TrEMBL record:
<feature type="site" description="Cleavage; by autolysis">
    <location>
        <begin position="403"/>
        <end position="404"/>
    </location>
</feature>
<protein>
    <recommendedName>
        <fullName>Asparaginase</fullName>
    </recommendedName>
</protein>
<feature type="active site" description="Nucleophile">
    <location>
        <position position="404"/>
    </location>
</feature>
<dbReference type="GO" id="GO:0005737">
    <property type="term" value="C:cytoplasm"/>
</dbReference>
<feature type="compositionally biased region" description="Basic and acidic residues">
    <location>
        <begin position="300"/>
        <end position="309"/>
    </location>
</feature>
<dbReference type="InterPro" id="IPR000246">
    <property type="entry name" value="Peptidase_T2"/>
</dbReference>
<feature type="compositionally biased region" description="Polar residues">
    <location>
        <begin position="311"/>
        <end position="321"/>
    </location>
</feature>
<dbReference type="Pfam" id="PF01112">
    <property type="entry name" value="Asparaginase_2"/>
</dbReference>
<dbReference type="InterPro" id="IPR037464">
    <property type="entry name" value="Taspase1"/>
</dbReference>
<dbReference type="GO" id="GO:0051604">
    <property type="term" value="P:protein maturation"/>
</dbReference>
<feature type="region of interest" description="Disordered">
    <location>
        <begin position="1"/>
        <end position="25"/>
    </location>
</feature>
<dbReference type="GO" id="GO:0004298">
    <property type="term" value="F:threonine-type endopeptidase activity"/>
</dbReference>
<dbReference type="InterPro" id="IPR029055">
    <property type="entry name" value="Ntn_hydrolases_N"/>
</dbReference>
<feature type="compositionally biased region" description="Polar residues">
    <location>
        <begin position="369"/>
        <end position="380"/>
    </location>
</feature>
<feature type="region of interest" description="Disordered">
    <location>
        <begin position="278"/>
        <end position="394"/>
    </location>
</feature>
Amino acid sequence: MVYPPQQYPSVGEQGQFPEIRSEPPPLRTCYHQVRSLLGKRSYEQDEIASSPDVAATVTSPNYPIASDTAGTANSSNAYNVDVGDGVQYIAADQSNVFTVDGAVDKVNKQRWGKPVTAIFIHAGAGYHSIANEHHHLGACREAARVGMKALKAGRPATEAAEAALIVLENKEITNAGYGSNLAIDGTVECDATMVDHFGRSGACGAVPNVKNPISLARMILESSNKPLSLRRVPPNLLVCDGARDFARDSGMELVPNGDLISKNAHDRFVRWREDLRRAESRDAQVASPSRGEPVPQYNHEQDPHKEHTNAILTGTWNEGQPDSPAPPLSIGEYVDDYAGDGSPTPEPDPNPSCIAPHDGASDERDNVVSVSPESYTPRPSINHRATDSGCNGTIEDEDRITDTVGAIAIDQLGRIAAGSSSGGIGIKHRGRIGPAALVGVGTAVVPADSRDLDAVTVAAVTSGTGEHMATTMAAQRCAERIYQGSVRGVDGRDAPEDDETAILESFIVNDFLGHPGVRESTSTGAIGVMAVKKTPAGYYLYFAHNTESFALASMGSNDREPSYTMSRIQEGGNGIAHGAVKIGL
């Protein structure tokens, strides 16, 4: 019979020492690379030292064993160990065990330390004026703080990402939730997606009357994991009125359309409608000119509002594109049916028409070269020189940005989640589903393989020209490229690549811009991507964009304040900006 340590009978009690087994314990390393979130595997036996001079130790992976998390009476640092033959005793956990090698103790302390959580935010890829970038970076920082607060409270990654995105949806300066772009009839329809660490998703598309579509997406995700009667499969994507009905039935408050329209969103809509009417009138004159009259030629180079017009039109095909850098004109300066009473909710057009695709000649990225982005470091203050061509200080001060937003979170259990939210492009067709509602297009997670001892996982969120991102399955392709460490080779086959920065650049040049569906399109391919790779060495944020700017922020649980940046392509540049940051464990 084997007695636990410190319970052997003294000599004379029974006249002899009890028999001690001499078989050595199974050969195992102290710190094997098992990454089980539940701790010790069920088939792994506890290793008990038979020497009475050393306290019993139990080898475990990086996380406490199940009995640790359950707790024992009067001690959170102890657990029951069954020696056999019905004998049990209380043993201290591994963090209090004496070891001969001090280096092992140091490693042990690090591995049993408080888990590191992280939150990553982006506020869209487009053009952000220098004068107003502090507003957008401030929104990113606030979202990061709220997301980190949820993570430190022990909330799962999906809830943390939701909390962060709600902050951005409630900001007027973002194209998500309140203040979103209006459809061609003046209705606000939003898209959102939430993806968990298993790659399961919940999404809503073109949903009206919902202030926080990311909350609806998370509700759909949770409901999709609950079985239905008659072996029905629960949905993970709902759109339009069906999504709105689901929100109402689930107890979510619906709001009138007018409550989702901000003043700036209404002003944008009025400008877009006027520009659309002018464009249609010009096209009609070109198609059927009067006899004997010359066809009027529209010269963009001589147009004093060229930059204003280009930026306005860009907002009709790039969800991450900001509002025009020109000063917002009063509604009275436009001859528009919707501007007469200043109502925030315009009446539907009886004959809505679709906006013609913008040729984007001044924004083409055919010859893409790598440029150096701004360094990704905490920046407590912004002090930039206003260099935007055609924009003076007054113009920039009045600039307003409208962006798609995204978030990636990692919780205390190491689970990763990603979410996106958007109001879509301006004067879009009713019912248009954008990339923020499509899994693998705007949001993607590559789950950790169950046989991977390092439990590597990757999440990615994107912003830009939604239709092109749908053609290329942008988020999924980007996440898989980083996960597999590959790029598109010269013959179209995958080629190995270890540099994640090179992978992202190749993704934009070859997988996105080089895709036949994008290359042969009449619309410009704009994209910004934010990806996070979770490894045993740390969490790595990688980002890249071919738009003028990209707003990002990140925060780890060991950070006092979020890190943030407004990544920009160099002035006059026509290429790709990229960067990276690591959050250590």
